[in-house]
Amino acid sequence: LLDAGLDAATDAGWMDAAVMDAAAQDAGMEAGMEAGAVDPCLGRSGLLFCDGFEDPALASWGAPVATNGSVERSTSRQRSGTASLHAATGAANGASSAARYQAQVFGHIKKGELWARAFYYLPSSVVIDTFFATLRAAELEPPSFGCSLVVRAGNVELGGVTTRFTTSSPFPRDQWTCVELHIVIDANAGVCEAYVDGMIATQSPMVDTLPAMGYTTLDVGIQQTDTAQGPVEVFVDDVAAGPTRVGCD
After folding, report:
1. Region at 174 (left for phi over 0; alpha for psi -120 to 50; beta for the rest)
2. Residue 9's pLDDT is what?
3. What's CA 164's distance to the chain center, in Å?
4. C or N terminus of the chain, fewer CB within 10 Å?
C-alpha cells in the first residue's frame, strides 16, 4: 500500500495558508490542548463517526490488529476525557508491524468526499528509522485500497495513492497534534490531502481515488510500519469522520 520506492517532493514546508481548502478557515487550532480539553465531536451534527475512547469496551471499534505490537485503551495520557488509545510496535524483524483499531465508518462510499480526523501524540523518544503509517481511510475488502498519512524522520507524506507525495516538515513531537485526511473520490480526478494542525501538509494531484468496493474503514493507531522500522509508540484520541470537514476546534 505504501509503495516505498516512489517519492515525489512537494513544498518545502506546510503549504502556505493561501492554498488551503476554504474550510480551513474554520478548522481551529486547538491541537495542543491536554487533559481536560473538550471533545471536539460534542454537540456536532452530520458526523458519521465520533469516539474518544471513553468506553472501556471500545464498542465502536472492531477487533484490534496487532502484529509485533499491542494496542489498547489507556488512561495514562489523554487529550480530552479520561482515556485515549495507546499503540506500540516492537523491534524491526524483517516484516511489517501494526498496532491499530478499525471501525467501519463510510459504508462503501464511491462518490463525493470524506473527511477523517484524529489527534496523535508522538513521543520524542520514538526513533523513526524509516516510516510508519497513521490515520487511514480505505475499502474493507482486499486489496484495501485507500489513503493514509505516513510519518518519516523529517517529513510526512501520503501513502496508498500509488505515488507518495511529501513535505519536508517533520511531524510534531510531545504534543497532541490534529491529523486530518480529506479524500475527493473519483476514478480520474480524485484527490487525497493530509492536514496537520489545521494546515494542509501534503496533497496528491488528480489521481484515481476510487476503490473497487468503495470506502468503508477507518484505521487509527499504527496502521503499519516499514519492515526496517524500529519500535514506535503513539497515543490517539478524539477520532471523528464525516462527509464534511470536522476540523480541530
Report:
1. left
2. 33
3. 15
4. C
- DSSP characters over 198-223: TEEEEE--SB----TT-EEEEEEEE-
Quick one: pLDDT band at residue 160, thresholds 50, 70, 90? confident
Helix-, strand-, coil-residue percentages of the chain, each rounded to 5: 5, 45, 55
Q: Which cell goes with 224?
A: 503499519
Residues 6+ apart with CB under 8 A from 151: 122, 128, 131, 132, 133, 134, 171
Distance CA 100, CA 72 (A): 9
More confident residue, 123 or 15: 123
Report yes or no: 123 and 174 within 8 Å, Cβ to Cβ. yes
All 3 cell numbers of residue 190? 480524485
pLDDT above 60 (res 6): no
d(CA 200, CA 245): 13
- How far apart are alpha carbons 21 and 79 in whole angstroms? 26
Q: Do residues 40 and 47 touch, judged by C-beta distance below 8 A?
A: no
Q: What angle do CA 115, 118, 123 make, to 5 degrees?
A: 145
- Counting every residue written for the chain, the total comes to 249
6 three-state secondary structure: coil
What is the share, in percent, of the chain residues with pLDDT greater than 90?
71
Q: What does the alpha-carbon distance between residue 135 and residue 221 come to, in Å, rounded to a whole number?
A: 7
- Average pLDDT of the chain is 84
233: buried, middle or exposed (CB in 10 Å: 19+, 13-18, 0-12)?
middle
DSSP state of 26: G
Read off the pLDDT of each residue in 184-192 and give the average, rounded to a whole number. 94
